[in-house]
Amino acid sequence: MRALTFLLLSCIITQSALAQDPAAEADATETRAVSSLTPQQIHAYREGRGMGAGRVADANGYPGPMHVLELAEVLELSDEQRAATAALMSAMKAEAGQLGKQLIAREQALDQQFVDRSVDGESLKVALMEIGELQARIRLAHLNAHIDQRALLSETQLESYSKSRREARAARGPGRQRDMGASMARCDSGTVRTLTVELLQIIHRRMQAAPDGPFSACPATPCA
Fold first, then answer.
1. pLDDT in tens, 168-196
2. Cβ(18)–Cβ(106) under 8 Å?
C-alpha cells in the first residue's frame, strides 16, 4: 500500500510539475499528433531520459551515471570521478535526446499516415523499422553509458553501489519496481484515476477486515 501511495503522489507531483514547466507544456501539446506517446514520454524522450533503458545493466553491476551522482557521498567519489561521471551523463542525455526527437518525429509521421488513410503494409513496415532502430539506438546510448561508468569506479565503490541500489529497491517493495517504472512513464490523468481507485479499494478492504482500525473514520460509501 505504501508503494501504491508513493506512486500516486509521484504521478500527481509529476503532472503538477509538467503543468508549471513551459517546455513540458509545449511538449504535451504534441500529444494530439502522437497517439502512441503520452506527454510525459514526449518530454522524457526530448530530455534524453532512460525510462528503464538501462535497467538490465543496473541490475547486473553496471551503474548508471545519474544514480552514481545521487550516491556520490555514499560512494565517496573523488573530484575527478564526479567530473567524469557528470560529463558522461551529459553526453548520454545529449545523444539520447537527439535520438528521442527523431523518434517523436517518426511517430508523428506514422500517426499522420493513419490520419490521412494513406498507410499500407509497406509504408507501415518502413515506419516501424525506423522507429524500432531509433528505440534501439536510444537504449544503446544509455547502456553504453553504464558500461563506461563501471570503468570509472573501484570494486569497493561498485559493491557499495549495488548494496545501496538493492536497499532502495527493497524499500519500494518486492515485485513493484517494474510496474512502478512503467506507470511513471505514462503518468497521465487516467493513470492517476486508476491508482486512486485502487488505493481506495485497498482502504475499504482494510476497513472491512478491521472495523476499529486506523481507517475506521473513513465513511464506507466514499471508500467503496
1. 888 877 555 554 455 445 555 556 666 67
2. no
CA distance 123 to 113: 9
Q: Grid coordinates standing for 35?
A: 497517439
State the DSSP H helix or E strand holding residue 220, giving kind and residue range, or none if neither: helix 220-223
61: helix, strand or coil: coil
Which residues touch 156 (CB under 8 Å, ≥6 apart)? none
Count Cβ atoms within 10 A of the Cβ of residue 146 and give its class: 0-12 exposed, 13-18 middle, 19 or more buried: buried
Query: Are residues 144 and 99 in contact, defined by beta-carbon separation less than 8 angstroms?
Result: no
**Which residue in the block uniquely carries the three cell numbers 473514520?**
217
List C-alpha distances in Å: 167 to 105, 161, 163: 39, 10, 6
